[in-house]
Design brief:
Blueprint lengths: L4 E4 L1 H18 L5 E7 L3 H8 L6 E10 L6 H7 L7 E5 L9 E9 L3 H11 L5 E9 L12 E5 L5 E2 L15 E3 L4
Helix pairs in contact: 1-2
The structure holds guanosine-5'-monophosphate.
The site of guanosine-5'-monophosphate has 19 residues, from β5, α4 and β8.
Amino acid sequence: MTELKVLISRAQIARRVVEMGAEITRDFAGQPVILVGVLKGSAIFLADLARHIALDATFDFIGVSSYGNRPSPTQELKSGWDSTGEVKLTKDVDQSMRDKNVIVVEDILDTGLTLTVLKKILLAHQPRSLKIAALLDKPSRRKLPLKGDYVGFTIPDEFVVGYGLDYAERYRNLADICIVPRE
Ligand code: 5GP
């Protein structure tokens, strides 16, 4: 593996997460919210964001995987991972979302396929409101017209790791968000 290059430093992340928490706190003033983390990439972001949301907040987690074969890590790095859009639920939420303010917490918005499916699944629970908080957004890769309601950073079409994001399950524990060079 070649050297990783820092794209967004831990200090930048920390500052932006504080701002995002303040935005959510303001938008939902006085109301309870459920933060639904998308496993596993959002775990670190959710943990930090939640501590900057000054509301009555509960957590839940949802798991998804794509049908079809995920490419090898090398292939994924080279051309991204364009799932077929058929997303399989591997873990559903544990609590009722009916009439609740639900905020889906995601690591990165890429093609938009995963969140489009997740939105559909969660809307079937009839929440009072449904918002998306994504730390990163790669709008140049979008295949479906999906927008995050709270977006940390817009980034170019690079494969990134760290702060929860993996490359073949590694690097999730890096404190900075780094680019994996495509060689
Ligand atoms: P989408 O369905 O929007 O194409 O894909 C979103 C998912 O693809 C993310 O939750 C993440 O798991 C994965 N993904 C997309 N881009 C990257 C990236 O640059 N780095 C990593 N580690 N995962 C990514």
